[in-house]
Amino acid sequence: MPDGAMFSVTHSIQIKGAETDITCAEDQMVLMAMEQQIHVPSPRPVRVGCRRGGCGACRVKVTKGDYTTQKSSRVHVTEEEAAEGYALACRLSPLSDLELEPAFLDPRRPADQDG
Amino acid sequence: MSQEGLLRPGIIQLRVLDMEESLTHYRDRIGLDYVSTGEDGRVYLKAFDEFHRHSVVLREADSAGIDFFAFKADGQAAVDGFRKRIEDYGLAVEDVAEGEMPGTGKRIGFTIPSGHRIEIYADMELSETAPEIRNPYIYKDEPRGMRAQRLDHCLLYGPNLPEVEKFFTEVLDFHIPERVDLPDGTLAIWMTVSNKAHDIAFVNHPEPGKLHHVAFFLEDWNDIGHAADVMTRYDISRDIGPTRHGITRGQTIYFFDPSGNRNEVFCGGYTAYKDHPTRVWDGNHVGRGIFYYERQMNDAFLSVVT
After folding, report:
1. What is the ipTM of this complex?
2. CATH class as words, domain B6-121
3. Which CATH number belongs to the domain containing residue A29 in this structure?
4. Which of A10, B16, B217, B306 fits B152 for a cystine, CB–CB 3.0-4.6 Å?
5. Among B206, B208, B260, whose Cβ lies nearest the Cβ of A53?
6. For this structure, is B94 an active site residue?
7. Catalytic: B165?
8. Nearest CA to CA, how far is A48 from chain B (Å)?
9. What count of CB pairs under 8 Å joins A to B?
């Protein structure tokens, strides 16, 4: 979203490991809200990678609340995992207050690959 | 002509999550020209200063990443010669028929020990919009967006780096202008088959077949600044830069396409000749090698790939 655009309805996002909650609008991605609101020296609870759903760095599990997601690489969040609440924070927008926890996966070794 | 065998990188095929927004990115932001859409939905693009039909192929898929990177050879005899050397080395070679891509001759493909598919081909039609060759202007139409001149190189992440190095140098006739050697093994190699500082590079990584970035060549540092302006205007996800690499000395911005594939705009870089010694970096100085001004790697360099 361009700077200066008016945000729609905002919700509070509690991220496990974060010192404070953040605020995220319904038409904003949780990861970008976190980047804007949590700066050095505060550690960011979720890793920032490509911000476009491809690399998996910001993988999280939503443990409470309603949300929408946009398309992301199935390598990082399978359909089954998405149904269990896993998502990439850069593709995740809130529809209510949310609680989530980081769920980053280390690089998958050849044996884990399903192509 | 002194350079024989393989000439240069010719084609990259990338997986993208959404074709429409990817086309906007590669055509309108990076500035590639749209060439065609194939019957299978793949989209073909080229940079304005490239002579041949296409160089970038986008394939819509449910995961991001690279399908293959292809090098152009100076003739079919060279392709046939490489085929024998690759098979003698012990890799299986697969044939790709002429016309599998429009305007493109037959290709051979093989999977290297890092898990990446590499292809070699000799023939591709010249582009209808190729640069002029008689009393040429520097361009026919003003370049768009970031004004990319050509597909330049890619950096790939995967395991078995010593085998990859052996294969590229002994079988495909690449040489190595620059490398990073850590106490427990090689971290990275930059390899060229021409006299660019690199045509392809590899970083050691546990997961096979990953893409770190594909790079597009810009004219100069001013165009790197212009590219950064374009990135902010269109909310393109930027990784790092404008900055310089100590390794290759190229000036650079890393950023991401709408599917999370990392792109680079790159200019400068030294000229590498086969008789030049390899520049070697160690673990205590590699930060300056990767990002010369920051003098340290960012978190994303070693871990964010597609």
Report:
1. 0.92
2. alpha beta
3. 3.10.20.30
4. B217
5. B260
6. no
7. no
8. 8
9. 77
A88 part of a folded domain: yes
Nearest to B262 by CA among B212, B202, B205, B296: B212
- Within-domain flag for A45: yes
> Which class is domain B150-290?
alpha beta
Q: Which domain holds residue A68?
A: 10-106
Number of domains in chain A: 1
The phi, psi pair for B251, rounded to 5°, reads -95, 145
Q: Check if B64 contacts A (Cβ < 8 Å).
A: yes
For every one of its 306 residues, what pLDDT tens digit does chain B have, with 9 covering 90 and above?
578 999 999 999 999 999 999 999 999 999 999 999 999 999 999 999 999 999 999 999 999 999 999 999 999 999 999 999 999 999 999 999 999 999 999 999 999 999 999 999 999 999 999 999 999 999 999 999 999 999 999 999 999 999 999 999 999 999 999 999 999 999 999 999 999 999 999 999 999 999 999 999 999 999 999 999 999 999 999 999 999 999 999 999 999 999 999 999 999 999 999 999 999 999 999 999 999 999 999 989 989 999
Q: Which residue, among B120, B130, B135, has the nearest Cα to B150 in the 3D structure?
A: B130
Domain boundaries, chain B: 6-121, 150-290
A28 interface with B at CB cutoff 8 Å: no
Catalytic residue check, B276: no
